Amino acid sequence: MIRGAALAVTAAIALAIAAQAFAGSAPDPRPGDKVLGTAGGITYVSDTEHVSDPAFTEALAACPNAGGKSRITGGGIRIAGIPGNVSISSSRPMDLASFFGDDDTVNDDYWEASGDAPVDTPITSYAMCAKLKGLKYKLVTVPSQPSGERLATGSCGNGRSVIGGGGFIATTGSRVTSMYPSASDKWSVWALDTGGGAGTTTLDFVCLKSKHLRTVAANRMIPSDSAGFKTVKCPSGSHVTGGGALMRGGPIPSLLDSSYPIDGSDKDKIPDDGWTALGKNESLNAQKLRVYAICLS
After folding, report:
1. 8 Å CB contact between 229 and 151
2. pLDDT tops 70 at residue 254
3. pLDDT digits (tens, 9 = 90+) for 143-201
4. Based on the structure, what is the number of domains in the chain?
5. DSSP string for 214-252
6. In a domain, 162, yes or no
7. Is 276 within the bounds of a domain?
8. Is position 12 within any domain?
9. pLDDT (tens digit per residue) in 15-24
10. Which of 64, 69, 147, 165 is most buried by its number of CB atoms within 10 A?
11. Average pLDDT value for residue range 101-126
12. Does 189 map to a domain?
């Protein structure tokens, strides 16, 4: 009994230390995360992991003072592998448990980026965080469907606009192929479910009522059996809060390999200037890659 009590005390101390560390006291943000800088009141954080399991690896970038006032506005994923040889499982906001110092159940604390890729491939998660009043977090779960093609759209409502978003699909081998603002107040996700329609799919997005939000987009035609990047920049004086990409033609046979914020030609090295995405077209015809940047002035 004494030994059991001692183990219980040791475990309690370990939990207390972990909770204190993850609550923002030290270190801040979580170990391994890199604060890339702050611009326009938005803090940009990244976390890079190298694939150990080719079927699933995730990178998690937390907001500074996770569980505090700095909250997710959007995020992105970069998989630095050979185009068409990787796939996205998730790129979405998540909630830290109370164990880590959080006191709610809102998906506003960190950005999860996960996917399939060869061993040692770097996967980077990007989190954009801000102390903005009125942020609302939306989670829409898509029911099972008879087809492996999944398309889902959610709406902010109440006069709010999308400030960032992402998506998720559960089944091993499945992939998210498009995630983007389909209107100023709507977010959409395309996914391909290799489980035949039974796998869980979600779209996760963030909304804000603000006259200072603007969404810009740019297109690139990708030839058959080819891959390509497209970048769109925010207007001067504004900063990217989120973004996304749509591969025209649906999830078959298109792929989205990366979708993340980028730094422009200004003097700093903060990825606040726009959005880029990498798409792979495996069809017999050219497809359009449309990239979106959501910007706050």
Report:
1. no
2. yes
3. 877 777 888 899 999 999 999 999 999 877 789 999 999 999 999 999 888 777 677 88
4. 1
5. EEEEEEEEE-TTEEEEEEEEPPTT-EEEEEEEEETT-SS
6. yes
7. yes
8. no
9. 333 333 333 3
10. 165
11. 91
12. yes
The model's pTM is 0.87
Q: Residue 139 has which token pair?
A: 């989670």
Residue in 142, 149, 141 with CA at minimum distance from that of residue 174: 149
Q: What rounded mean pLDDT belongs to the chain?
A: 85
Q: 115 is in which domain, residue-wise?
A: 31-296
Instruction: State residue 5's pLDDT score.
Output: 37
Evaluate if residue 57 carries a pLDDT over 80. Answer: yes
Distance CA 107, CA 73 (A): 10
Cα 224 to Cα 227, 284, 287, 288: the distances in Å are: 9, 5, 7, 11
DSSP 23-87: TTSSSSS-TT-EEEEEETTEEEEEEEEE-SSTT-EEEEEEPTTTTSS-EEEEEEEEE-S-TTS-E
Nearest to 108 by CA among 146, 161, 183, 163: 163
* C-alpha radius of gyration, the chain, whole number: 19
DSSP 195: T
